[in-house]
Structures are given as C-alpha cells and as structure tokens.
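User:
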Amino acid sequence: MESLEFFDPYTSYDLHWFPFEIYKCKKLKDSRISTRVLYGNYKNRMGFPKLDHNPVRYYGGNLKCSVCEKKLSYETTNQMWITADVGTDTIPMLANLCSEECEQELPIPPKDYVEFPHKGGADLIQPDMDEFDYIRANHRTVTLEEIESGKKETKNEKPKLLQLIRKIWEKKPDRSDL
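Assistant: Predicted structure:
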C-alpha cells in the first residue's frame, strides 16, 4: 500500500473516516474524496463518534500500532481521531496507538480543524470557521477602484461581470415618473 499514488473513494459516501495507515503512503500525491461526508468537515462539522466506551473493531485479530507497528490487543490500544492532509484532501483518520510517545508522533492537524488527537464525542468542540474568513482566505477581494478603472482581472472574471451589471443599471430608464 505504500506505493499508492492516487486514491479515489469519491462515491463511497458511507466512509466517514480512514485508517491512519493511509498517511504513511508517501507516494500518494493525488486523491479524490467526498469530504462533505467526513467527520469534522469544515462545512458541516459532523461529530466524531466517542471512542472511550465504543472502540472501533476491525475484522480479524491483527491489530498494530499505527505509528510504530507494534502488535496490540483491543485492551491495550489507545484509539484516537486525528485530521491531516493526505493526497490533496484533508481527512479524519483513526489511529491505534500503543503509547504516549506514538501519540506525540502524530501529525499536526491543519488550521480550522481540531488541533490535537482526540477521543471524539458530543462534548468535543470543533473550531468555527466563519464563512467570511473562508472567502477571504480563498478568494481575492476586488476593490471599487479596480472595478471603476476597468482593470482586467486574470484570476477572477467577476470585475467584468460587475462592469456589465453597472452598464445595464446605468442604461435602465428612470421609471419614477410613470
């Protein structure tokens, strides 16, 4: 699995998380994942299931630490949720950990996600991402001066659209005297 280069579970809408082991795929450069159905997605903040009294069980009896690959049992594993960038997506992953040292080896989650490994549950506070902060971070603001001067925008065609709307508005006849 370490030689995986492209990961495409896009139509798997029942997948809400992935095993941490996918993070170890260093050749993985591209992914296509429906992030809107994932736990902790910044748009809907779907809650993470609580792991304290309801650990995730895998098929078969082979359980290893997600970091150091030490053999574990369900009684000795410490399961934690972590969100990280994998391929071209930010995804929640379940890590099976054998020690606090292995927990410290987990990646630092990206901004606007839970900033630490956690056990999930309804009491977990996820960061609020204000819609305007998202727009400011991902789109360039166009100033009124740029619109009025007719400066051409190469990245975003909105100024041309605004100019067209302004021309239509200015040509609109005054209907106040009707």
